[in-house]
Design a protein that fits this description.
The chain is an all-alpha fold and 209 residues long. The chain has helices at residues 3-14, 24-32, 38-50, 59-67, 73-85, 94-102, 108-120, 129-137, 143-155, 158-161, 166-179, 184-193, 196-204. Helix 6 (94-102) runs antiparallel to helix 7. The radius of gyration is 22 Å and the shape is globular.
Length: 209
């Protein structure tokens, strides 16, 4: 069968919930088949995450895929997302997902998915809010990872409510905005005019504009 047909079939099963419960072992076999293209296997893992309670009994198997360093990083990334979507059933794997997020050797998009997964695990990830916040504040961390960390903190609600993450988020938004400005001159002018004191000074002395 054509791999794209198999991919669409796996995605369709992912939308069927409990009705597809009997087919989870087949999806898992599809994921384990190394002859299947990586992106197809990756999407099949996502389908498992969308099955909810129907896939809950298979969380240890999904976690094994996630932890296996021989498995392609993007398949592991979607396994992390799947664990995040499976909620309380995957609560025991929060520390390992966090370690996945910390691994600087991994592609930033993979680490970003790990951060998002933590945000979807609710109370199970609540004790790790300070560590997630560290990723948001660390300017050496790639912007997409920091952005996902910010979203994760938002999803964790009350657990993150008493922690001030506004500074890190503001810095991140500024960097993203500046990166879209076309020239260094434009960036310098934006930095200058974004400070209220400079606006007042310019207003008072228009010859210096």
């Amino acid at each position: 069968m054509d791999v794209y047909v198999r991919l669409n079939a796996a995605s369709a099963l992912g939308n069927l919930g409990q009705a597809a419960a009997n087919h989870v072992p087949e999806i898992l076999n599809f994921i384990k088949d190394e002859k299947v293209p990586t992106y197809v296997r990756s999407d099949a893992v996502s389908a498992l995450g969308n099955l909810g309670q129907a896939a809950a009994n298979y969380v240890p198997v999904i976690a094994k895929i996630f932890k296996d360093e021989k498995v392609d990083a993007f398949v592991r990334s979607n396994a992390a997302s799947a664990l995040g979507n499976l909620g309380q059933s995957a609560a025991n794997y929060v520390p390992e997902i966090l370690n996945f997020l910390k691994d600087e050797k991994l592609d930033s998009s993979v680490r970003s998915n790990a951060a998002s997964a933590l945000g979807n695990l609710g109370q199970a990830a609540a004790n790790y809010v300070p560590e997630i916040l560290n990723f948001l504040k660390d300017e050496k961390v790639p912007a997409n990872v920091r952005s996902s960390a910010a979203s994760a903190l938002g999803n964790l609600g009350q657990a993150a409510a008493n922690i001030d993450c506004s500074h890190g988020w503001a810095d991140l938004k500024e960097k993203q905005f500046l990166s879209n400005l076309p020239t260094m001159k434009a960036r310098k002018r934006w930095r200058f005019f974004s400070k209220p004191g400079n606006l007042v000074k310019t207003w008072r002395d228009s010859e210096k504009i």
